[in-house]
Amino acid sequence: NNVFAEMIGQKHGLQRKELFDFKDEAVKAHQNILAAAEAGEMGFMELPHNQQEIVAELKQTAEELKDKFDNFVVLGIGGSALGNIAVQTAINDPYYNLFAEARDGYPRLFVSDNVDPEGVKALLAKLDPKKTLFNVISKSGSTAETMSQFLLARKFIAEAVGEDRVGEHFIATTSKDSGYLIEIAEREGMKKFFIPDNVGGRFSVLTPVGLLSAAMTGVDIEQLLAGAAYMDKICRENDFWQNPALVNALIQYLAYKKGKVMSVMMPYSDRLSDLADWYRQLWAESLGKEVDRQGNKVNLGPTPIKALGATDQHSQAQLYMEGPFDKIITFLEVENFAEELEIPKAYADLDGLGYLGDHNFAELINTEKWATELALNKRQRMNQTVKVPKVNEFTLGQLFYFFEFQTAVAGELFNINAFNQPGVELGKNYTYGIFGRSGYQAKKDEFENSAQK
Ligand code: PA5
């Protein structure tokens, strides 16, 4: 961990003593989380253990449907999309959608989260409706981006297969007893999967939200959950020094207090690049809050930033090295890449090129990371590394769970509610109002009377 003063310099590093001084706060935070889990309030902690039946149903569904459809399209946004993308990128072939041999008989996967008309239209224009299955994912069952895409997809399917067969082309993933999606699913006879009430959107990747698209693309969802269960055990450890989620949450918290208000996640792995996108939402939406638990205005929260190594060494790294001292960087380092790819030896007579040929690409990408780390240390920039032995379902499940748990601990340390998102809801409500949804007239009036209008 290159976060300590003796490694990167007194002024910008943490003193080990600070960790000792604050560790009891982290332990208290941990106790609160375990107590909340006991009370059934930490749904994400139950997921590695309570889904045997659901997993069996998901696997059976995937088995039944994978040959019937060429395309599986997720309609969802935020916590109902980012985990799906992260799993797909981490586990499946990078060119999965492009080549049939990369898919091993499974359907293509598209995650349509935005409502840019050009993107939405371009996708539908390429799909054969008869061979397309949509998974509409919305916990609230009313998010405008998702439901508007559903309305369009429904029309697209109905025109091709007829009104009475619409339900066969949709699976709804939603809350069991609230919102409109569940009602629609019942009316149309769609297959349904449920998101537990005590699991928030951004904590839901290991529910059917993320697991169905994973199963539909051949990902081993049991191993994902096994990885999460393994990490759950580690995260329940009471000894601060033996619990990496506690240590890391405290480091992030202390770094923030020392003015490192930007938290960069920088995987040196293409496979983990979308995990950083998923984490960006988790960290931002959970910790960016106006009020603390007592209702005092605090307006706090670290700003998460995604970077990709080595690519962003040639884009962001200059700023990280020499810009303001306001960042803590978390590297994700893969110890064993699945491919051993040699750099061919050639041009031995050209000093500036010949040296590459004694090495392979895995060595190169990790050397790039070590070099960046060293340069950051030289410039007294806080950085730390999470080592991933190799990227597979088991380690990915661990990473999801680890960062979710760390976020819950950080919420306790910051004394905010990490599980709500009033700012996001406010934006959603203005959209409903402006678009004329009943019950939201006051929001529409606010818009009509605003300077913005
Ligand atoms: O984490 C969250 O709660 C949000 O990002 C939601 O996932 C997002 O707004 C989508 O909400 P819903 O699943 O209700 O459509």
TrEMBL record:
Catalyzed reaction equations: alpha-D-glucose 6-phosphate = beta-D-fructose 6-phosphate
Main location: cytoplasm
E.C. number(s) listed in UniProt: 5.3.1.9
Swiss-Prot/TrEMBL GO biological process terms: gluconeogenesis; glucose 6-phosphate metabolic process; glycolytic process
Pathway the protein contributes to: Carbohydrate degradation; glycolysis; D-glyceraldehyde 3-phosphate and glycerone phosphate from D-glucose: step 2/4; Carbohydrate biosynthesis; gluconeogenesis
Keywords: Cytoplasm, Gluconeogenesis, Glycolysis, Isomerase
CDD domains: SIS_PGI_1, SIS_PGI_2
A GO term, aspect molecular function: glucose-6-phosphate isomerase activity
Protein location: Cytoplasm
GO CC annotations on file: cytosol
Enzyme class name: isomerase
Record's keyword annotation contains Cytoplasm: yes
Stored InterPro entries: G6P_Isomerase (IPR001672), Phosphoglucose_isomerase_CS (IPR018189), SIS_dom_sf (IPR046348), SIS_PGI_1 (IPR035476), SIS_PGI_2 (IPR035482)
Active-site residues, record numbering mapped to chain: 285, 314, 428
PROSITE patterns: P_GLUCOSE_ISOMERASE_1, P_GLUCOSE_ISOMERASE_2, P_GLUCOSE_ISOMERASE_3
Record family assignment: Belongs to the GPI family.
Function: Catalyzes the reversible isomerization of glucose-6-phosphate to fructose-6-phosphate.
PANTHER family, sorted: GLUCOSE-6-PHOSPHATE ISOMERASE
Protein name as catalogued: Glucose-6-phosphate isomerase
Organism field: Halanaerobium praevalens (strain ATCC 33744 / DSM 2228 / GSL)
Gene name per UniProt: pgi
